[in-house]
Write a structure and sequence with these properties.
- By secondary structure, the chain is an all-alpha fold.
- It has one domain.
- Helix content is 83%, strand content 0%.
- The chain is built from seven helices and no strands.
- The mean pLDDT is 92.
């Protein structure tokens, strides 16, 4: 019985970090949708756009990976929130880097459901998330 109670002693911290992570994901989804000129949800839900699903899914996955790094390495809740904001900014910058640097026509290519463009943007987002998480292991 003591082993069970010991295991459950971290339940409150888990619940707090998990709730903050879900809230961060929601904020990320809303901000990412505002920053991108195309409406990912409409493209995915109404037009079944594979390119948009890859791009947006990669962005969410990349942000989640970075959030996991923040949760693992944070010194407390405030530290976690700060690094979640850093992760969010990094993902938004990743989109800007692709849009204004590597693939200036990325928005119209995703709107036209060019899968290669969506996969490329998604992979860049996941890569940024992985690098972000690794760099948070201060």
């Amino acid at each position: 019985m003591d082993a069970i109670m010991l295991s459950l002693s971290g339940l409150l911290s888990f619940a707090l970090y998990f709730a903050l992570s879900l809230a961060s994901l929601l904020v990320f989804k809303l901000l990412y949708a505002k920053v991108t000129p195309h409406d990912e949800w409409m493209l995915i839900k109404e037009k079944q756009s594979t390119a948009a699903a890859w791009a947006f899914g990669g962005a969410i996955l990349g942000f989640s990976i970075a959030l996991a790094g923040a949760a693992t390495n944070s010194l407390g809740v405030i530290d976690f929130i700060i690094w979640a904001i850093v992760a969010l900014v990094a993902q938004l910058l990743a989109f800007a880097l692709v849009r204004f640097g590597f693939m200036p026509r990325i928005v119209e290519r995703i709107e036209q459901d060019e899968v290669a463009a969506g996969i490329m943007l998604g992979c860049v987002s996941v890569s940024i998330g992985l690098l972000n998480a690794a760099c948070m292991s201060y």
